[in-house]
Every structure is written in structure tokens, then in C-alpha cells.
Amino acid sequence: MHAIQVKSYVKGPEDLVVTTLPDPVPSPDTYLIAIHAAATNFFDLLQIRGKYQHQPPLPWIAGAEFAGVVVSTPSSKAAPKFREGDRVFGSSQGGYATKVCAREESLMPVPPGWGFLEAAGLMVTAPTSYAALVLRAKVKRGDCVLVHAAAGGVGLAAVQVAKAFGATVIATAGSQRKLEVAKEFGADYTIDYNREGWAEEVRKLTAKGKGVDIVFDPVGMVNASLKCTAWGGRIVIIGFTSGNIEKVAMNKVLLKNKSLVGLHWGTYSKEEPATVEKVWEGLFQLMKQGKFNATVYRDRELHGLERVGEALGMLGRRETWGKVVVSVPQIVDSKL
What we know:
By secondary structure, the protein is α/β, with parallel strands linked by helices. Helices cover about 30% and strands about 25% of the residues. The mean pLDDT is about 95.
């Protein structure tokens, strides 16, 4: 197979190279998947530099999110969930390759009408945004939701989930193009968060200037967002893409009866596995209703594993929107 193998940590994605390796041999409890599309993530940039909290022992294959076709099923399962030839998407270490092994719980069926490119980026962003807004923030019809970095992967997913539940969405982003994208995906209002006084602009857009009911924050903008959050409002902390882990003046939280809640989707499979199934049921229902669509970056076509370094570079420089996905052509003979 072809793959991007990390033998030693690199300075940046431009140092990644595609190599030829033996096909992976699935264990008795894993599927073998032929990858047709691979999605990029910020944590990939950290992992290839050796700076992520989860580092496989060297050498390892980079990438973790993909879509493809089942080549073989687990030998230990008499009745596997998926059969050979089924179209699936999922997450497993080694996504930047033409083949990967994955456990059943890390795979999902490609939704009807969706292609590999569209499905490859679902596994991380879609449930994160759904769980944050539905489980943690209890979004409901009539709420006003502020989505930061709204043109990113989790941001565009959050915009769609909030709109599907009947909320008004105010989206922030750092460029005109990204604001346009957020609008295309359903945001009611857009604001450039690089502009001074953006929090006051947000407040003025809400009913009687009371502020937003929910803040969706994957950036690290809690302190600034407290200025435009309503009494009793909820701020859901998804991550810190700004690199800044804030210190918050808790008197501001107390006096206005506000709530700060966190969401780490990855821990649900261990702590609340039943919730994972419910979240995906909710997402698949929204997809069926046409209320949740793919968020694949379309401004540039990225074809072949050789383009992964370029894709990660653009992602790291904040030049993209949505999910940056690379199509992965299958090689005729993996032994060549």
C-alpha cells in the first residue's frame, strides 16, 4: 500500500513523504478498509511534530479520519455490523494511507447520497458540535447561539445543528471569505472577530440587547464572550485553537448566573457509550431531513496522498474553511 509513515518527528507537514509499505494485517477484531478519502485535523499537525498527547511509538502512519470500502471483516465476529464492500467512514490511526485497520465501534455507514469526500470528515466534527449544543448547552427553538470560528469544521457543523433546532445563529470568523461561507451554511448574522468591539456588535443583534443564550467556543474566547452572553447563558468550551488557555474572572460568571461547560467528545466512548449511539442517531436524522450537509473545503482540489502535506499546511495557516479532505486513489497492485 501507499502511506505517509512517520519514522522520526518532522518540523512541519512539508516534510511528509509518501512511501510504499506492506498492507496492514487486521487483528481478529478489526476490519480492513480501502481508503478513498482522508480528512485532515489540527491534531495531525501536533502529532507529526511529537507534540500531541497521544503519540504512537515510532514508526507510525499519520492521519486518523477517513472514508472507504470494507475489504475484510473481523474473523472473531460471527455477525459483523459491516460486510465486505460496504461504504464506511471512521477514525483510526493510519488514515493517510490506501488501507487501514479499524475497530467496529470506530466505523459508521456512509449516509445515503453522500460520497467518500463528504463522509471522510464526519467522524470528529459532527458529533462534537451536536453533543456540545444538544447535550451540553440544551439548545432549543428561540435560542440565540454565537458560534466562534464558524467557518471551521466544528463551526460549520455547529451552525447547521443550531439552525436545525430552531436557533438564531450569529457567526464569527476572521476573514470575509469565511464569513461568506458561514452565511452559506445558514448563519443569520456574521461578524469579524478581529474587529474591535465585536462583542458589542453581537449584543446589539440580540433581542433587547440582552446577549446570546449560548456561545460555542472552539477558539479560547470565553472572557470576551462573557461580555455578550445573556443572564443565564451557557458557554460551551470545545477547544483552544488560538493556543491560549484562558484564566476567567469567575465573578463575571457568578453575578450573571452564567454557565461554563466543557465538551471532550473523545471520552464519551469510554464514559457514556450509549450516548455516542444517540448522538449519531440524531445526526443521521438531520442528514436524512437535509438539515445537515457536508462541509468539505472546495476552493482547491486535493487529489492523492502527495497533497496531504499541502493540505495540512493550509490548515495550519488558517487558509481554509470547513473540513479539508484529500481524495485517495486506490492502487491496482499494492505490492508494486
